[in-house]
Amino acid sequence: MSAKDSGKERRTVPREAVQLYDQFIHGEINRRSFLNGVKKFAVAGLSAGAIVDALMPDYAMGQQIARDDERIRADYVTLQSPEGHGFIRGYLVRPYSADSRSAEPAKLPGIVVVHENRGLNPHTEDIARRLALANFMAFAPDVLTSVGGYPGDDYQGGQLFSGLDPNKRFEDIVASALWLKNRDDCTGKIGITGFCYGGSVSNQMAVRLGADLAAAVPFYGGGAPLDQVANIKAAIQVQHGALDARLVGAWPAYQQALADAGVTHEGHIHENSVHGFFNDATPERYKEAAATLAWQQMLGWFNTYVRT
Predict the structure, then answer these.
(1) Predicted confidence (pLDDT) at residue 156 exceeds the cutoff of 60
(2) Distance between CA atoms of residues 150 and 90, nearest Å
């Protein structure tokens, strides 16, 4: 993870407003309730409008790897998803160098990157590019494909997301993972990571895919159903922010179920970090120190269990 301006670490709005934003993006409150709630935190020098602006994602600021970076090759690929919405489109990224121009592409381990509940936004694509520079082949599917794909606006994306059949959304991710695993330029070993919705999906995919998945690193996502943990064969590394009370509170039971099932696992609870602490496009949630450490932990996990 590249260093961020230290100003991004400085909280400029009340934590309660950040929590209100989390409720909004998770569909727990509507836009009007969010905007009205923010007004309660307006003080001299910090208007409601300024708070809203500070909470909204800034994808240009959060970009670490340019889309046209010469060290990668990226394409949008559409594949069949017969049990899902029929097809799904995603962002496929591989590392690239001048030395490889005339050679057959090297076989690489694959990582599925699953977005939050708003579709394949620029932040998720940037994470796929970061993984490519760590010498993985990354595929980030867009579960909004059947309704036109990520619309360029997170609120609209969330509205589209909530209107889709959750079972078909999940099957689209399953199809994506198996497609990646079976590509000729993949080693046949894959991992998965995801954020919020994508974190929950990462845990659920470990149940569904069994031995077909080597590792999963869910970020602030709900655990797999406890009565299904015995189906997990992948190595699980869980990432949470310590201030994300609901998910942190559920972790001990999930951890115990993983231990009882003999699943290789570890959990990291990052101090003074909220839900979304890894997302550097949302500076009021982003925690640079925690995000940098979590990135290093994730790469170490994938290098151990997916690359070897």
Answers:
(1) yes
(2) 11
